[in-house]
Design brief:
Order of helices and strands: EEEHEHHE
Structural class: alpha/beta
CATH topology: Metallo-beta-lactamase, Chain A
Radius of gyration: 13 Å
Largest sheet: 5 strands, mixed
Number of strands: 5
CATH class: Alpha Beta
Oligomer: single chain
Number of helices: 3
CATH superfamily: Ribonuclease Z/Hydroxyacylglutathione hydrolase-like
Mean pLDDT: 92
Strand order of the largest sheet: 1-2-3-4-5
Amino acid sequence: MYSLNKLKITVLVENTAGGKGLLGEHGLSFLIEADDRRIMFDTGQGLALNHNAQTLGISLENLDAIVLSHGHYDHAGGLPTILEHCANTDLFLHPQAI
């Protein structure tokens, strides 16, 4: 059994972008920080991801894993952007996702 001491989920991409200076787009991306692990869950379309991460002061480097829920463009389109920052990160997805 694994017990978490710290969990933080940051929304990087979504439709409404309520924060000042953030961009919204159809799609979804979360950065999940669980203790010392950093996991990117989905990557949005790829248009807002890097901009929003920079605006929020979040590095896209040193991710422990990237998880894609499915291969639609609005969840997996930002994968090339993420891979520019951390090409050697574990990637979890269905074989037919992309």
